[in-house]
Amino acid sequence: MSFITIFLIAVALGIDAFSVCVGIGLCGIRRRQIYIISITVGIFHVLAPLIGMLLGHLVGEFIGTMANVFGAIVLLVIGGYYIIAFVRDRIRGETGECAVDMSLLAKPLGVVILAASVSFDALAVGFGLGALGMNVFASVLIIGVVAGLMTFAGLILGKRLGNIIGNKAELIGGILLVGIAMYLLVW
């Protein structure tokens, strides 16, 4: 498998992190959180294929079906929280910026749960890498770096769009995350 093939696999694995992070970034996020989340997602995209190679094909089939469900549930919770916070603030008459303040991702456990939820698909890739006799170190390093960069780009794009959209960003971010979750559950 060539470098280009590995790179394309890495981009495919990073797309979910990118799209989720655009939604998260819409509600405002501090630069420090952007770095922490991006690095954590990158690390998880290195560890997941390595773990996948160790677990084997049988376990991979089970985890593969559960990964979408787990990831969708996490996104539903975060997206639902954004939507509820937006509606609650409108009922109270508050029309400021996002009230969520990224509290779900302000704690290490929240960041780990997010990183795990967007990294489960990399487990299956690990099974394939092991079977093909790939240079595992180079492959997982490329996957991790690309996923981290795509996460960073999604958070930055979301943050900039949030600054433009203003006080509707929280609702749009919540709807986007719930939509992604529904997509994961249906497909």
TrEMBL record:
InterPro entries: Mntp/YtaF (IPR003810), Put_MntP (IPR022929). Pfam families: Mntp. Keywords: Cell membrane, Ion transport, Manganese, Membrane, Transmembrane, Transmembrane helix, Transport. It is found in: Cell membrane. Its main location: membrane. Belongs to the MntP (TC 9.B.29) family. Probably functions as a manganese efflux pump. HAMAP family: MntP_pump. This is Putative manganese efflux pump MntP. It comes from Desulfuribacillus alkaliarsenatis.
